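Before relying on records like the one below, remember that each one covers exactly one chain. Contacts with other chains, cofactors or solvent are not represented anywhere in the record.
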Amino acid sequence: LATLPQKSNQFAKVRHVNFTFVVMVKKFLTYINEKALFQPSDKVLLAVSGGMDSVVMLHLFHKSGLGFAVAHCNFGLRGEESDADEQFVKKLAKKYKVPFFSEQFD
């Protein structure tokens, strides 16, 4: 019985996160529409570094049902970490079944 409140509290947190993300998606779509950034039928090329901001943008596009592809530039500034970022972004593109484009720079 001691674990029940803890579990229900965990579910409450999950529901809150899901609700917050739904609100975020609605605000995202409203902003795109109000600013006429592109048409819903357009396909957008997202520059995704692997950092939090660009990954959240990728998730917003996916959850919104918008058409997109993913681009990643690997400048190799952090050696293996840069390569790991590239692989992470590639896996996200594969997960969402969208085209992935990558370029490595010296």
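The helical segments are 3-35, 52-64, 80-95.
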